[in-house]
């Protein structure tokens, strides 16, 4: 499900209050510093992404019910569940396409009642879509370059076209696109039109376009849907490399449990909008509630391989 909710949106930004110890001196300052160290030691590090008590309904249908989720920095975190469990709704809330009825989304220290889509890139968040959202008539290189289009506003760019600054920005963007194309082994198809490539390669191009921004947090919406086994292996390796090489925190929703179990550090399981399990792949695999709700059901597309 990738339908986009419409309607007026408002969001609230709640930064943490600044520390105050401006006029402290001598012993007072030491006390303040000690106090701060103690406070820091007691205060848990905020996860890269946090969802708190997220609920969402469509008419009478509860898509999400009081869902909590934390994603640690540098983690590969999967969200799985049967059809209609609420996975896409959850991803759409994190990327600002849906506004939850209740709850908050945290990116590090910042919390939102509704995530502002226009600020997503600025927050270091990128996403891919379940149905490919590539420009099929453009080359792979140009598609990847489009991932950086937000860096300069069009009006501003028009004003500075031809200027040394414009040339420098363009050169930097092109270099970043070349780098990620090489990283994802897409050099051979760099100049091919995206629409002419096999589906699995197009998925790779979409991943490249998301990664070119070097996001802190990457949201992957069913990245393995419709791709061959060999392509699944390669894409899985790319996802892992993105985390290992760029330190990108990754959240993926996915149907293919085999891929998820081999790739993820932790897995959350949704069923009818509720989180019914959360833990390592080994923990989730043996959870009776998960077996009942999901793993007990045979899935033709499940893949088992070591990555
Ligand atoms: N835009 C929408 N309008 C109405 N109902 C919706 C909308 N989006 C989701 N839903 C409903 O919310 C529930 C959760 O749907 P969602 O698409 O989030 O589940 P999912 O786990 O991603 O399913 P799938 O794996 O089939 O994509 C379903 O009952 C769905 O019909």
TrEMBL record:
SUPFAM superfamilies: P-loop containing nucleoside triphosphate hydrolases (SSF52540)
SMART domains: AAA
Molecular functions (GO terms): ATP binding; ATP hydrolysis activity
Region (Disordered): 15-34
CDD domains with a match to the protein in the record: ABC_Mj1267_LivG_branched
Cellular-component GO terms for this entry: plasma membrane
InterPro entries recorded: AAA+_ATPase, ABC_AA/LPS_Transport, ABC_transporter-like_ATP-bd, BCA_ABC_TP_C, P-loop_NTPase
Keywords, in A-Z order: ATP-binding, Nucleotide-binding, Transport
ABC transporter domain segment(s): 49-297
Role played: Involved in beta-(1-->2)glucan export. Transmembrane domains (TMD) form a pore in the inner membrane and the ATP-binding domain (NBD) is responsible for energy generation.
Protein known as: Amino acid/amide ABC transporter ATP-binding protein 1 (HAAT family)
Organism: Bradyrhizobium sacchari
């Amino acid at each position: 499900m990738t339908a986009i909710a419409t309607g007026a949106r408002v969001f609230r930004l709640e930064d943490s209050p600044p520390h105050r110890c401006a006029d402290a001196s001598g012993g007072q300052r030491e006390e303040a510093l000690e106090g701060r160290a103690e406070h820091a030691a007691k205060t848990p590090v905020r996860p890269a992404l946090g969802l708190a008590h997220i609920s969402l309904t469509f008419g009478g249908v509860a898509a999400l019910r009081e869902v909590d989720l934390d994603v640690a920095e540098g983690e590969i975190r999967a969200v799985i569940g049967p059809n209609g469990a609420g996975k896409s709704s959850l991803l759409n809330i994190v990327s600002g396409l849906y506004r939850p009825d209740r709850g908050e989304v945290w990116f590090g220290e910042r919390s939102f009642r509704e995530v502002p889509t226009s600020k997503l890139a600025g927050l270091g968040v990128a996403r891919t879509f379940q149905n490919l959202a590539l420009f099929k008539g453009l080359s792979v290189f140009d598609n990847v370059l489009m991932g950086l289009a937000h860096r300069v506003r069009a009006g501003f760019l028009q004003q500075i076209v031809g200027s040394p600054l414009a040339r420098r920005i363009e050169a930097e963007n092109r270099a970043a696109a070349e780098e990620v194309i090489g990283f994802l082994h897409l050099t051979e198809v760099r100049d091919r039109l995206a629409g002419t490539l096999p589906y699995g390669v197009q998925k790779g191009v979409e991943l490249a376009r998301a990664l070119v921004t070097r996001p802190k947090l990457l949201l992957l919406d069913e990245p393995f849907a419709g791709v061959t086994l060999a392509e699944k292996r390669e894409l899985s390796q790319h996802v892992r490399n993105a985390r290992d090489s760029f330190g990108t925190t990754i959240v993926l929703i996915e149907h293919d449990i085999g891929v998820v179990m081999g790739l993820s550090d932790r897995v959350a399981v949704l069923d009818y909008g509720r989180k019914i399990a959360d833990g390592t792949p080994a923990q989730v695999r043996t959870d009776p509630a998960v077996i009942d709700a999901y793993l007990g059901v045979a899935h033709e597309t499940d893949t088992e391989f070591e990555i």
